[in-house]
Amino acid sequence: MSYRLLTYVSDAGPRPGILVEGKVYDVPEYATVRAVLADWDAAKEKLRAQTAAAKGDGKPLDTVKLKAPILYPGGLFCATANYTDHMYEMRKSDPPPKGETRPCFFLKTTEHSIIGSGEPAHLRPAQKQVFWEGELGVVIGRETRSIGRDKALDCVAGYTIVNDLSDATDQMARRKDMYGQWFGIDWFRTKSWDSSAPMGPWITPAEEVPDPQNLSVETVTKGETMQNSNTSKMFFSVAEQIEYLSERVTLRPGDVIATGTCAGVGRPRGLFLENGDEVAVTIGNLGTLRTPIIRDNMP
Fold first, then answer.
1. pTM for this model (two decimals)
2. Would strands 166-167 and 13-20 be described as parallel, antiparallel, or unpaired?
3. Domain C-terminal end among 25, 42, 66
4. Distance set, CA 272 to CA 15, 172, 278 (Å)
5. How many domains are there within the chain?
6. Which domain covers residue 27, as residue numbers?
């Protein structure tokens, strides 16, 4: 039997749990999923043993409220322009030779922005051009500094799904002011707002994902499949992204890397999210991350 690691709402508040054959079981030895990940080398053996011993007395998944799987990552590192099909969608050109460039990342706020599957993303009245970006999320399970790509996957505890909700409402106007002319996109305003980082529904252990570069990616909203691609179209692989990030920061257990999005986002088509929409992102065997959209009346 296999399991998925998650955070669920108990009578005592958020608790770490495992999903086994459709039922949720508490993980009693740890207070949080971050604590599980901080002890990952030992914890994964305990979780395997608990999975093997599961007797069917857990809570049915449809009776349990899930939160984002990690409350909250110390760092949420987001790759930009990392799928060849998305690069062409945005720029109508092929990427440069790989040896002439490096990965590019921005940071997204964690506790402010991360919500779980089924939790609504709230748009303020001024946010008129918000769109979706379904992404593979990489969950770090071991402190990692300056690691080479050949060993980079050894530090991965598992994988999840991230929807990098993005707001392009006044992006072009901002580029015309002094700061926009100097620095380009206002990444904070575009990417880091309340509920802009849906994540989940759980963490799939790395052992259940033999090849993170061969996972289907599908995003459905407004009754239409918007994104339909594969992680094989990443420009920089998961291992290459970990190598690059670990050159500058020590990656820590519970950190998450959102590895970029594929073609099919709303901005190039002028298609944006509205009140009552739902965004469903499905990646390989990782499950489906669902996000209802609510437009608030108040700023």
1. 0.96
2. unpaired
3. 66
4. 35, 16, 12
5. 2
6. 4-66
